[in-house]
Amino acid sequence: MAGTGIKFPVISFGHGFVMTTAAYDNIWSSLVPEGFIVALPKTEGSILPDHDAFGRDLAFVISSLQTAGNTSGNLFNGKVSATSCVMGHSMGGGASFLAVQYLPTITAIAGLAPAETNPSASGAAAAITIPALIFAGGNDCVTPAAQHSQLIYNNTGSDCKSYINILGGSHCQFANQNFNCSFGELTCSPSPTISRAVQQSKVNQYLIPWLNFRLKDQCQEWYAMQNQLGADATVSLLQDCLNPVICVSPGGRRTKYITKKSAFLKWNPTNCYSTFDVRIKPSSSTTWTTIPGLTSNTYQLTGLLANTSYDWSVRAVCDAASGNFSPWGTKQTFTTLLVNPSNLSFLKEAETNINIIPNPGNGNFDLQISSAIAGSATVTLNDMQGREIISQQIFVNEGQNSASFNIQSPVKGIYVLRITDGTTLVTKKVIIN
Fold it and tell me: Which class in CATH covers the domain with range 254-335?
């Protein structure tokens, strides 16, 4: 992660009663590759744990890592996000609800079969307003839901809380095999009807997208999670949640490369979107034409009338299925040209992208050009001795273009591809292997 400039959210995870942190290798091995810093305090592992102290420890770990992330010379400097989640299993899950009061900047809270504690986790839950996610095992006989996880869920004061009951799951299968937990579970019934691997996979299916949304602001993860929950017969769901996604209109709207018949529209992508809609009309008209489902933050308008004023605007589609759209952005206005400029060059425009596919290759390749304006160009290919192998004229339309080339009897090595439209020269390297 050195030198990437990426900052990683912190997760502080509390272990269960007389369970070691080694029982939770499944937690960190699933979350660390997803881009989270996971810390598992080893404190309060005795048969007489101090639940309140454990909650303080869980909060302290987050605070300390975030401080390290802002300390020059520290290993974590510049690598720790300001967002965090406190979570845990059983006793550690209950202690997580005690932790929030000691660090109000915690972003979210999650629990795997959280247990009631002393002082009361369900009592502390009433003061918690951050987003909460609780998992329970449908066959948990160690901490029955009514006295533990569901009681905590019911009391939680968050305006967005979810309770996922994994049907047939047990208390101990949220963790890896642990003698102390398994011994306690043998003294009660019912037994689990699903495997440990299935139960842990089910947790990851919903925990990871929830964390990505809450700690990384990846709103599509929230929608994906909700869609899966709605169709999942292996869980039962309780959820009390106002729409947590605010769909914002794209900013930075501008019009570029205006010609007689075309214009290039561009805007800044928002934090949350699946697609964009653009609408366009002549300024003298009241009727809009909408172009839906755009996956990029640009659009090439063609077929326009010369010397004519046009209006356009754009909105973000955060989730079409639930009807979550942003408002239409402020109207933008431009006027097409009466005559195109004589020195128009599609190659010098910043929006022109040129790719060679495949490269390296075997002598057959496609030249792919995405251009905001139309034009013609001469393409030549020379070997390293300067011998001309290919010379071909191509015409580039607005939008996506592709031209195929074939080197007869290709020799392995490096070739030089030159593209010129009479005003601008672009050079690319072609590798034959």
Answer: mainly beta
